[in-house]
Amino acid sequence: MKQRLLFLGPPGAGKGTQAEQLAKGRQLLHLSTGDLLRAEVKAGSALGQQAEAVMARGELVSDALVLAIVRSRLERQAEEGGSGWLLDGFPRNLAQAEALERLLAELGQQIEIVVLLELDDSVLLQRLLSRGRADDNEAVIRHRLEVYREQTAPLIRYYQEKGLLEGVDASGPVEAIAARITALLD
Ligand code: B4P
């Protein structure tokens, strides 16, 4: 059973939704950089204040900031003797992917599978508009999709070349998508 996974996919593909269920069921550390950044914004920390305006515009928060968050969580988990994790929404560009590789080499760990959630733009837009988070208005969503295409989509090839990528149809009911993902993990 695979225990070290990444979820990749456009905004609104359901990474967070699927990751939460899967991580709970398999006792994996669920590390969502989006959730962690929103928690910092809510707490009004210095980090949150830096991230808030960037997220509201639908752009990516600085690599250094996101990496510091990921590093501290993965190091803490390794110190506590755990090793199963699900990274959701990270890495989001090549610099983050390369930094992750260096961090995992330090920890003596490896990614076992990268799950790409695939969905049409029209469905993504509908899902996000009906959620209505602060960064879920149409102009910002379109910009997030552009940022995804320019900065995150190159990771598809990056992980394909490493032989780690598996695509999943992310349309339909949550349970059906979960079953498709589970079938890839065992
Ligand atoms: P994230 O929090 O990662 O969010 P997301 O990509 O918008 O959504 P996700 O794919 O997780 O969809 P979800 O399950 O929520 O990013 C937000 C922002 O944080 C970024 O724009 C960026 O600024 C910043 N950020 C995060 N990580 C970063 C990083 N590594 N580097 C730099 N910046 C970073 O689902 C969406 C909606 O669809 C929900 O309402 C859900 O209920 C619904 N849904 C899910 N599955 C469904 C289904 N099967 N059918 C119908 N609806 C469904």
What does this structure look like?
The chain has 186 residues and is an alpha/beta fold. It has a domain at 4-29 and 83-185: Rossmann fold (3-Layer(aba) Sandwich). It is 60% helix and 13% strand. The protein is built from 9 helices and 5 strands, in the order βαβαααβαβαααβα. The protein has helices at residues 15-26, 33-43, 46-57, 63-79, 94-107, 121-131, 138-152, 154-161, 174-185; strands spanning 4-8, 29-32, 85-88, 113-118, 165-169. The protein has a 5-stranded parallel beta sheet with strand order 2-3-1-4-5, with helices on both faces. Helix 1 crosses helix 9, helix 2 (33-43) packs across helix 3 (46-57) and helix 4 runs parallel beside helix 5. The radius of gyration is 16 Å and the shape is globular. The mean pLDDT is 96. Residues 9, 11-17, 33-34, 37, 54-55, 58-61, 66, 89-90, 92, 96, 127-128, 131, 144, 173-174, 177 line the site of BIS(adenosine)-5'-tetraphosphate. BIS(adenosine)-5'-tetraphosphate (B4P) binds at residues 9, 11-17, 33-34, 37, 54-55, 58-61, 66, 89-90, 92, 96, 127-128, 131, 144, 173-174, 177.
Key terms for this structure?
186 residues, alpha/beta, Rossmann fold, five-stranded parallel beta sheet, 60% helix, binds BIS(adenosine)-5'-tetraphosphate
